[in-house]
Amino acid sequence: MSERAFVPRASDPRDQAFLDYWGRVIDWSDPAADKWLAHFEQRVTECRKVADAIARHRPLEGARALDVGCQTGALACVMAERGAVVTGVEPEDWVLEAGRLRAKGWGVAATFQTATGESLPFASGSFDVVTFVDVIEHCRDADACLREIARVLAPGGVAYVYGPNRFSPHWLKSDPHYGLALASVLPNELGRRYVEWRRGKKGYDVGVFPVGNHVANVLSRAGLELVDSPVHRAKRRATGTLGANASRIEPLVRAWGQARLLTDALFTLVAVKPGSERA
Description:
The chain is of the alpha/beta class. Helices cover about 45% and strands about 15% of the residues. The chain folds into 2 domains: about 15-165 and about 210-230 and about 265-270, Vaccinia Virus protein VP39 (Rossmann fold), CATH 3.40.50; about 170-200, no CATH class. Helix 1 packs antiparallel against helix 4, helix 3 packs parallel to helix 4 (about 95-105) and helix 9 (about 230-240) packs antiparallel against helix 10 (about 250-265).
């Protein structure tokens, strides 16, 4: 990987060692290198929103939390800061090193280890919270990852899944990773060739984009119960607007929520594992 001598000062001083490291390992020949450097530094803001959403369903204080595809550790650090006992996993140890440096800079205890989402090295029921954020389209077998998430989740635990919708009109003209029209809907091999041709550079770090309703179905088949989704949010909005009268148009509201689950640029699903929490 090519290096650049200058890395900007971190907006949060706790992240400076992480940012210096990432500046050494990032590929500066990539036209989007500056974009990705900024993205990983600024992930903390979005991850705090994720932590807020999880806390509405399960307090993070004292929770055993697993971040599948933890990237550079932003969400792991945020959950650890809020009192969770956090483990982050990634397939590549050089990425995990960024998380370790970030956690050290933050002064939080988080464990990072090499693993794939398709085969998590943990016993069934090991975690109270499992997150799968902005990574599902990079997995070799997304369905296997979702089943593993359900397996390692303890009864009463919460799974938080977030990703891009394959057929969203939003991505047809510009995909979220490379800014290229139609890249997200092409089969993987064709997509790789197309992206490499347009960018004039080898390398394509994206698999098959998921579809929100399929992800919801896999979670349900794996034994989890959805408690928040575009369908749930559509029902809440209808109830807030129409009160008791919302029941009269429930089929229409459900259909609208299902349509959003299929076509929103990004879907968010929260599911729980039936049963009582650990004593």
